[in-house]
Structures are given as C-alpha cells and as structure tokens.
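Homework help board

Subject: predicted structure for assignment chain

Our instructor gave us this sequence and asked us to write out the predicted structure in token form, then describe one feature. I got the tokens but I'm not sure how to describe them. Can anyone check?
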Amino acid sequence: MARTQRRIPPPPPSRPLAGSPPTPVKLPGWSAILDTITAEELDNDVGEVILLPPEYEERSEVEPEAYWRNQHDASRCWTTTFIYQHIQSHPRLARFIRPDEWTGLPVLAKPDGLPLETFIKSHKTSMYDESSSSDSAPTNVRIQDEYKPLIYQWALQLANALAHIHSYGKAETPSIWIAFGDIDISKCWLTTGLNIQLVGFLNAACQTPGESTHFGTRTNGSAFHPLEGKRGEDDSPTEQTDVSMWGCLVYELMTGAWPDNRVPDPEVVTTGQWPRLEVEYLGEIIGNCWTGEIADAASLMDKLRSTISGLGWQVIEDVLVGFDAEALFAQS
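My token output:
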C-alpha cells in the first residue's frame, strides 16, 4: 500500500537571497562526518558548526534554484532544522542555535570534545582487549575492564537522549512525534568530561498534528539493522527501531565492531541470530532491545539503571557517581 510521504520544506531565509554572501566556513577548523553529511566550523569565532549536504560545495550557491537544494541530503539537513525547532534543548543532544540565514541548514554549538568516531579511533588499541581474538573467533574482543564504566555512562546518556526524543508526541508534549533513525557512532559527539551527545535528526521520522508523516531514511547499510528486509510502510524508523539501534551502537562500544562484523550472516536480523554478550557488557539488555522485549527508551532507562546498579555503580540520572572519565586518558 502506498504511503503518504511528507517532505520537510526548507526554512525561509531570514535574509534576502539575491546578492547574499555565502556562509563562511573556517578552514582549517573543527569538522566531523555524519554518514554523507559534514559538520564544519563557521568562521565567526563563537563556536558554531553547520551541517552541510555533500552537494553544497560552492559557497556562493544560495539562490532558490541552486542544484544542492533539490537533493535528498539537503532535505535531511532541513529535517534536522525542522525537528530542532519543535523541541526543547537537552544536555544529551547537540545544541541547536539557529537555521543558517541564507540556506536554512542547521547551525549547532561546537562541542567541547571530539566526534566519538575520531576519539575511538585514537584510543582503540588501549581500550579493547584483542589478545584472545583470532580470525576464527572474532567475537572474543571486549572493552578492557577499566573502560567498562565509560561505556556504561555513554549507554545511559544515549538512552537518556532517546527518552527525551521519545517523550514528544505524548499527551504532555503533543507538538511533534519523533523517531531518531540511524543511531550509530557517526551521530555522536563528545563534550566536557567525555559526556556524549546525539547529533542530528538526519534520518528521523516525524509527524506534527494535522500533518502527514515524514518518513525517515536509512543511510547505515549494515545487514544488522532493525529495518533490514522491511518494505513499504514498515521501512521507516520507530521508537522500537531506535532502541534496537541503541543496542547495536552499545554492542560496538563494548566490542569494537558493529554486530555484523562479529556475526557475518546477512540474514542474522531477519532470522533472529543475535550475537551474545555477557551481562557485565550489558548483553542481556542489548539482546532485549533486539528482540523487542524493550520497546521504548523510558523502559530502556529503567532497565539500564537497574542493571548498572547491580554491577556495583550508583547511578544518578545518567552519570555514574564517583566516576572520572577523563582520568582514564590523563596519560594518553
């Protein structure tokens, strides 16, 4: 059955397009890659970054008929702007500042830390124990014991971000319903104290009252994906697929690889052949996210706090009491 797809329109520019200068970008400066989208630092010395679609290469192309405006990735960036304009700020979401005055592309606060992907690559050899792994048994790789609390805290903070996102569309906040979409390492930035933030809404599905649904997109091509094999009305993100993607990301943080790198069967999701992790690596919770036993982020937060408390940590909100993440890397 055909579905009604809503395309998020670009926000109207707050400055006249004719003769407007292009958005200045600081080169070199802070930058990050979010699948096909780049985040580049604005040359204004106030700590701002802009999300740019790959087709936006010529900085003077701000006219309404510019080629990049009709491309899919521009729509993804405008979806991000649209959703941010409908929600309140949250410490576990990258902070939205404004739409760019000429393009409507989202301008976000520059984080105090690195993109998570860059950080993990820099510290991977010290963080992961590959001594027991081999080509025939790659599933043995685990995060080193001293770094497990860091992953516990990141898992809590990512779940907290999802809980905030999923709180919209309920009776208390009916202004918009949101499912985040592809939650992977490229959509995470680090802030002060090595706390973590989700970035974006590039792949999100959303709906505002009285409007048709804007169906989300998928750019993560892994066979281990909750939308793998789905077609038609079922191939758009939901709250449950967000929780499942959380499980995939935390699995990667615990083992150093996305689940399909450990269990390469391309039908692993459609047949339910889940890779296993021990409880101390949050394996039970991750498995429950994949099977659908945990279907929303509020339930995930409750289960996660209980499990981490059972592992010996006191949890307040989404932080571990007495844990100093930066001390782990003080000698790096």
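Reply (TA_rk): Your tokens look well-formed. For the description, you could write something like this. The first helix runs from residue 72 to 84. That's the kind of observation they're looking for.
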